[in-house]
Amino acid sequence: MNKSNRIIQVLGVLFLIILVSSCKHKEDEYHSITDKIRAKSKNYHGVTISSEKYFDDIKMMEITEGEHTFLIPERKSQIKSFKCTECHTKPLHKLQTEGVQKAHWDIALKHADLNTMNCITCHNGENMDELKSLTGNQIDFNKSYKLCSQCHTKQFDDWKGGAHGKNIGGWAPPRAAMTCVNCHNPHKPHFETRWPARFNTQKIIDRK
Amino acid sequence: MSDNNKKWYSLNLNSRQKQPKTSSSCGCGKTEGGCNSSQPVEELSAEDFLEAAVNASIGEEVKKDGFDQVFDVKMSRRNAFKQLTASLLIGAGAVSSCTSVISSDESKEKSQIDWEEQFKGNYKLMEDDEKKGTVERLVRSYQLRTGKTISLSSKNAEKDVLFGYAFNISKCQGYMDCVSACVEENNQDRDSQMQYIRIHEMKDGKGFNFNEADDNYYHEVPAEGHFYMGTQCFHCDNPPCVEVCPVQATWREEDGLVVVDYDWCVGCRYCMAACPYDGRRFNWSKPEVPEEEVNKDQHYLGNRMRKKGVVEKCTFCVQRSRSGKDPACVEACPTGARVFGNLLDPDSTIRWVLENKKVFRLKEDLGTEPKFWYYMD
């Protein structure tokens, strides 16, 4: 009687051990990928590779917004005719006289409606080399994202974190990201419809 | 059938002796059941008749189990020799041309390489110098065959790296630039138009309905009333495809990439059946890429040239990601719908997405733990 009791006890313990050990995945001691990420990133020491060499042909500048610090492309050197005051030597109303050759004729503003925005919402008629915030403060052309973020606050938060926008170079540090105007034309920020880059004719044949 | 009629050697491993129940001593000398059927019908009971009829049509096969069917093959000595010679010829050819005094140094070297490549081990089990060895052989072999030099890497997984991917379904517009970039980067077969990535055009309000989705549309995008989402290999942390591979030709690397050793794969396609996401592709024919379009920046586990009859798939562009770059699809996406990064780096953008956006994965309940998340704005 005693002996069979002991056997049952041993079997019970064995069963429990098997139950506990089989509950976990075969190879890993983690139950889910989130557990694994949490556990393994506790002692994160950084990586030896860098993505710096993949954008060394682009002039970058470092910005810090909130708790995020990263690189964005410098803008002023990319604008074709910066500084603006090289042409804008006189006040606007004097440049707008009839008969004089027109500039910026190709810009049609398709950004919000005219009740909300016109040229001087962002451009400063008094100082063409700077942008202008809604309250009239100066914003540097290199930091034009500060202008966009006045209205597009959600996109700005996502961009800072990395959920909106596009990475430059690669995943490895240092982090570099496109700024708003690298993807969106500020005068016409919407993406156009277009044809897809490819069409798989073989799939059509295979699925017949 | 009598034993002296037997022209083959049978491994009699199971005790069951197969003796035909009906007599076959009809004198016609045939070993097949053909002459059984010629027996007068009226002498047989219904059961015997059935057996005789079965024997007549498919012969002894019906009584053999799988093992016997394979090993108890009727093979004449001549046939056996023919098959044996054929398989030996390949090896013999290599040996003869590498020891021959007449053949050129180049063809000798080629045979030497082919020989060593033929008998190398599984990449998964190789030491670093063995990996280097096979990579050097493959580069030399490509050089000898085409006269062109490739850069083939055997870079191992970086420490403290676990790759993860996020896909913004509110941003994808269905332009398929990612698909194009992927095909060019990864040297996929142009003839069969193989693609790792599929972009599904889904109807608004129908949710993720793959049955009604179109993954091969051709009209201006984004189309009214539709949204787009992409699928590819999700690099599961608990990958069912790895589990089923009978030869361990596919495995999960330390940095989370699920990779294939194309030289170890036997092409059984179990992994394709096991993958719940249609992440794997099979080479039904020899993959062809025009020489001028071949991406020469290659990795052994990534975009090096494949052969006929092996399985391949997205590797998060291992040749790019292990050197710090983003995969080609991420770089090509014009809408910024694709985010890639190191899940172990608390400051990475992928971690920010996972911690701050509402994310989900496909078929999460299967427990495959994909490292590919979807999110919305």
TrEMBL record, chain A:
Boundaries of every Doubled CXXCH motif domain copy: 111-155
Alphabetical list of Pfam families matching this protein: Paired_CXXCH_1
Signal sequence extent: none
Gene3D superfamilies: Cytochrome C3 (3.90.10.10)
InterPro entries cross-referenced by the UniProt entry: Multihaem_cyt_sf, Paired_CXXCH_1
Species this chain originates from: Polaribacter glomeratus
Superkingdom per UniProt: Bacteria
Listed name of the protein: Cytochrome C
UniProtKB/TrEMBL annotation, chain B:
Signal peptide: none
Disordered: annotated span: 1-37
InterPro entries in UniProt: 4Fe4S_Fe-S-bd, 4Fe4S_Fe_S_CS, ET_IronSulfur_Cluster-Binding
GO molecular function, one term: 4 iron, 4 sulfur cluster binding
Domain 4Fe-4S ferredoxin-type residue range list: 256-285
Entry keywords, A to Z: 4Fe-4S, Iron, Iron-sulfur, Metal-binding
Name the record gives this protein: Molybdopterin oxidoreductase
